[in-house]
Amino acid sequence: MQLAVADLRDFYQRPLGQLVRRLLLARIRARWRGLNGETLIGLGFPSPYLGAFRGEADRIGSFMPASQGALVWPSTAPSLTVLVDEEHLPLPDRSVNRLLAVHCLEVAERPRPLLREVWRVLTPEGRLLIVVPNRSGVWARLDTTPFGQGRPYSRGQLQRLLADALFTPLDVTNALYVPPIERPVLLKSATAFERIGSRLSHRFGGVIMVEARKELMAPIGKAAPATPLGGLVPARPRGLALSAEDAGKGR
Questions:
Q1: Scanning 28, 68, 178, 196, which has the fewest C-beta atoms within 10 Å of its C-beta?
Q2: Global pTM?
Q3: What is the average pLDDT across 5-29?
Q4: Does 237 map to a domain?
């Protein structure tokens, strides 16, 4: 089920949403720095995270699915928001250097065609960064935040889905170890939760973050084991009739 854009906006205006933005943006910026001369596209509801790249990337676009709805972003400059069909992005082939998908894959009706469309618009050296709810995390079990909507993923499920769409995962990590409870004491301790949680087990993280590389050729499967042949029978030239002796032997 697709999220409504007004609900996403309201979440990021809450203290818990502002904390999520700060924690996830720190992880995103740790991977993506120095985007000068590049094109950055966000897909889903990416505007809370794209603002940090304004003035750095040459071209930025916030692509929001029609089934979700769109908000004008930024509010104090010419709009960079585009309402799109997520399976038919209004971009030429090989035109995007970086694509950030957040609040996107878990609510997509058809994840595989969506990823194939992302593959189409990425440059040969392009990078995809996906943020999805963690299937075993607490955030996916509560519907009080956007991460409790749609289909959560495990690491294995996400990696197989990317491989089917011709992407190779480069880095897989988890984030949001703080419980999704809007209490001041928990919000103030969020940094400690992130530090301790990442050392214990990735299973407790609320979201999975995967950076993947576009592959230009499908992977080659494992070679099938050779089957030993039995006794070989020499082939006869065409048009040569069997002799009576050979016919009698059933050759």
A1: 196
A2: 0.84
A3: 95
A4: no
